[in-house]
Amino acid sequence: MIGSNAAEAHPVAMQHVLYAKEVNNAPIIVVDPRFTRLAAKATDYVRIRPGTDTAFVMGLINQIVSRDWYDKEFVRTRVAGFPEMCKVASHYTPEVVEDITGVPASEVVRIAKLMATHRPGTVVWCMGGTQHSIGSSNTRAFCILQLVLGNMGKAGGGTNIFRGHDNVQGATDMCVLSHSLPGYYGIKDGSWKHWCQVWDVDYEWIKSRFHSKEYMNKKGFTLARWYEGVNQDDKINQYTPIKALIQWGCAGNSNSQMFKAAKAMNKLELVVIVDPFAPAMCEWGDKDNIYLLPCSSQYETSGSLTSTSRQFQWRFKVVDPVYESKDDYEIMAELVKRLGFADKFYKNIKKIPEDITREICKGTLTIGYNGALPERIKKHTLNWHTFDIDTLQAKGGPCDGEYYGLPWPCWTETHPGTPILYDISKPVAKGGLPFRARFGTKITYYDGRTENLLAAEGVANPGSQVKGGYPEFKDIVPGTNWKTDLSQKTIKEAIKRGMAPFGNARARCVVWTFPDQVPVHREPVHSPRPDLIAKYPTYEDKPDQYRVYTRFKSEQDPELVKKFPFVIITGRMVEHMGGGAETRSNKYLSELQPKVYAEINERTANNLGIRNGQMVWIESPEGGRIKVMAKVTDRVDEHTIFLPYHFAGQFEGKSMVDKYPEGLAPYAVGEPANIVTNYGYDIITQIQATKDGLCNVKPA
Amino acid sequence: MARMKFLCDVERCINCNGCVIACKQGNNIPVGINRRRVVAINEGRPGERSVSISCMHCSDAPCIAVCPVKAIYQREDGIVLVNKDICIGCGYCFMACPFGAPQFPSGQVFGARGAMDKCTFCAGGPVETFSEKERKLYGQNRIAEGKPPLCAAMCSTKALLAGDADVISDIYRKRAFQRGGGAGAWGWDKAYKGR
């Protein structure tokens, strides 16, 4: 478990972790800069320097490969780019890893052996793995580790990313993002045409709604940097600054360098906040430009959701929305009506929310939502007791033979769901799958080697007509492929032939469209190791990353650590959730965790003259500062400061409680940690780097 | 005859406070009253453990022995309860209790007369079962409904066990057996240093 503190962030999932430890005698290896409550439950704890996950994991891979502990048959038949990857990994010797990560060289070998001798094993990660400038390399390294161990497509294996709440996977699948339409279709012309067909809306009309055709295919601003579209501190690539903002179920204090988002509030013409509780954003504006729409909670509405394990469930309404609150569907419908195009988008939607689910299913063929119709989802949820707790398969009853929640891809209306991805031991019609043929059939790498990307001869799901690799299905219905053929004939044809609609290929270790084709270590944008900046510099600046100039190299200053000598990391506490608007408004949770604090190592505290419980100032290189209580603890090492990020209601030492509408101020107030999180974004996704910045600490 | 007991499996308790919240929310306990709390030892260091503590419903309860007005009594199933109509709020039980279980609120529902409040094992109190008075003075009576106490029912890792001592000790014994020589076995660190 790397970059995850499941004991605080996912307490219910801990049942399974502890079960593995107790019943299977599985080693629980926790890799984290902080000795978390999860680490307290681990069998092995590895403390790494923040932002060095890739170096550590590539070090493990290097040991596993060079000591011949890797799964040779799996690699031979189902993995691509292996020699290229090994060459890169060979740099990360235990000694090099020790220098970068701080993990003793002997520990690198020991952990690699532990992984190799305990198969299958799973890798769990969370935002501790992703929120870095090399976050996308970290997650790829975790996947490559599982590939070389042969841990993919097996019960007990795989990569299990614990999500932040019960429907984060569903939100991801709907691509509530600026660079893709729902179902990971992207924003190319074909993607728009596909969804226009699903919605039954004229493509030309959609096109006419954009400023120009260019913007239809141009990635938009991200959640991490939307405020730059207003403030323009970094140059933006859009014909106009952002003028209006709707923030729906998002607190605002989860944004890094949050004071910049606060500054943007006064420049916006219109801000609409939709939330059951008044979130942090309510405090920030000085102008009369903010509208707060009370929406209902999840218990006051119904609908489908998708869990971490790709399982659908139906959430039934418990009570009607209280007071004047409305559920999200109603608010959205009213908005669309007032914008004047309800007639266009509600053609297929008569019964809410069932028809919405049905429309999503119809269009989202990429990941096989099409078989998960509302009736089937409800049937599963209502008959959950008929499913086996280990295999997830129903034994008898109305869902006999199906897997609980129809884990996607659920290819047809009779498909049982896919409980484990890429499992070639089962027929596709019974929940098996090969790796997807997503990136063509052949590639010539940078070293000149050419490789066939399809799976090796003899490797396919039982019953497959082709006994080996094959490309994706297309032109069964002329001019379409398996993911654009809305008649679903292509998918059905593939299943009939015992094959996966998306082909049977190899998982790749080399991504030829990324700046780092194989994951390599790069120092955080704000690094505490000037000597390593020279050796492992960050990327070149990106002039147009999601419409804004994003600094990498020009922001990486070897001198910065002199003024800001501590690494700052943020995370969750079990009592509070996200921005904390809901949990800090609960009197019992607020009683348990009423205040924000900074975790400081005892040695550091003594050197700085800080006592336990004393107030301190934390200052960021960007100019943000917060006044918080010091919690002197061994959880962090002497170079690191930890802050929980759930708080709001105080801003750089000033109380903001009177800014809330009457009666809506939360019980627990404190400085948002994100005032002092740093500049820095992932090179691919632009996720904010909140887990490896720098800061200074001094007594208040 | 069953004897009701709590057992907190420290290998499982992750200090999530779910038991505390379930107790407070479900019994409508005022802020400041802690029928249950989670205590961490060696916080942030290897060997960190946490344990959820409330009234232990002692077999030979010191609080009963010292109560000057005989407000505290033990049911046949071992659950120790206080009669709030008799309690004078003197605090002798607080002095006698090794676990800090008795709570003394003031000015709110439970402390209307300054009476002592503590964990009831979700078994209500000495008034008519399921009556409004029972709910107000003592909280839910889940035992009468055939349910375990809220804290144990809500425990996210099933660390906190509650019920017939024979049954829960059997659950715990099975766990200890399964853990075997691995995680958490006493002496493991000494015998197999560094593994």
Summarize the structure in words.
The complex is a heterodimer of chains A (700) and B (195). Chain A has 700 residues and is an alpha/beta fold. Among the domains of chain A are: 6-161, 3-Layer(aba) Sandwich (Dimethylsulfoxide Reductase, domain 2); 556-699, Beta Barrel (Barwin-like endoglucanases). In chain A, 27% of the residues lie in helices and 13% in strands. In chain A, the strands form nine sheets. In chain A, strands 16-20-17-19-18-23 form a six-stranded mixed beta barrel. A three-stranded parallel sheet of chain A has the order 6-7-8, with no helix packed on it. In chain A, helix 4 packs antiparallel against helix 7. The longest helix of chain A has 14 residues, at 53-66. Chain A is globular and about 70 Å long. Chain A starts with 5 loop residues before the first helix and ends with a strand. The mean pLDDT of chain A is 95. Chain B is an alpha+beta fold. Chain B has a single domain (4-181), classed as 2-Layer Sandwich (Alpha-Beta Plaits). Chain B is built from seven helices and six strands. Chain B has helices at residues 18-27, 62-66, 92-96, 132-138, 150-154, 165-179, 188-191; strands at residues 4-8, 36-41, 49-54, 72-74, 80-82, 160-164. In chain B, the strands form three sheets. Chain B has a two-stranded antiparallel sheet with strand order 1-6. In chain B, strand 4 (72-74) and strand 5 (80-82) form a beta hairpin. The longest helix of chain B is centred in the last third of the chain and has 15 residues, at 165-179. Chain B starts with a strand and ends with a helix. The model of chain B has no long low-confidence stretch (mean pLDDT 89).
